Amino acid sequence: MDLIRNQRVRTLTQLFKDLKKPLKRTSRFELLESVRKVVLELEANTPGSEELLELFEREKQLLIQTKWCDVEVLRKRQLAIFLEIIKYSEQEKHDNKRMCEACKKIKSVDHFALRTRQNAVDTCNRCFNLKRGSNPNNSIYIAMLKAIQREERKKGTLSSHAFILQEEDIRFIVDKIWHGHSILSKKSEISNLRLPRWIKSQEWSPWNCVLLTQTESHQHNNIIELKKLYDDNTIKEVLNRHALAKTAFKKLQAVEYEFTESGDWYDVGVKDRAV
Ligand SMILES: [Zn+2]
After folding, report:
1. What span, in angstroms and rounded, lies between the C-alpha atoms of 120 and 205?
2. Helix 3-20 to helix 25-40 angle, to the nearest 10 degrees?
3. Angle at Cα 118 formed by Cα 114 and Cα 120, nearest 5°?
4. Ligand 1 centre distance from Cα of residue 73 (Å)
5. From ligand 1's centre to the CA of 113, what distance in Å?
6. Which of 83, 131, 170, 242 lies in disulfide reach of 207, CB 3.0 to 4.6 Å?
7. What pTM does this model have?
8. 19 CA from centroid of ligand 1 (Å)
9. What pLDDT, in 10s, does the model give residues 49-75?
10. Whose CA is closest to 268, among 174, 256, 170?
């Protein structure tokens, strides 16, 4: 380890020990101030440093505004992030590292799956899978996603958005965009719901689909003019939902560009083919 790095790690470790000590309010303030200065001098883009500064600031505000307050949880989080930053500072190479918002561990980007939704929290694969595992009803969304992918494949559109979405995204589309029921009959029995393309000649996307029952979905696919099945208000409503989906999946459009540029796009569709 080179000298400067060695020294920095030693300073951080000392401060970490100090942060764990119970201190009077004034000394705690002084300590927070010196830690803040050290954190500000860390290498640019050190994962977690901004959040850490925010947590210090929050503690300071709490200590100023209230006579007595419980800052234990706050301090635990500070320490967890601080420890990760020390480990990070020890490492020689720092390319492509980021902090998981759930477990606060700093990991390299390949530990993070592609997240397509705009407001999706940046969590590592481990946390993401833990969360997903605790969701027992996901099989229905997996089945829905597979059905969409099957249809898209049949139509020869391997570049469809359907191939980079995850079941969590389908759950989001069903629950949040379409409120869990068919736009026509309002039926909400999930195993009977489908998400076909809205405009049949365009590839499937979160903003080109509609939530219908299986029977309605057949009807939808068999008519040529949408106006025969839907009145003006329903069509307007569908377009509103599409606008919502577009906002929610903004990232997906950026991702699309990335994939098309790199050529990885094609593989995403093929990988799933055997399943
Ligand atoms: Zn994590």
Report:
1. 18
2. 160
3. 60
4. 18
5. 11
6. 242
7. 0.57
8. 24
9. 999 999 999 888 888 877 666 787 788
10. 256
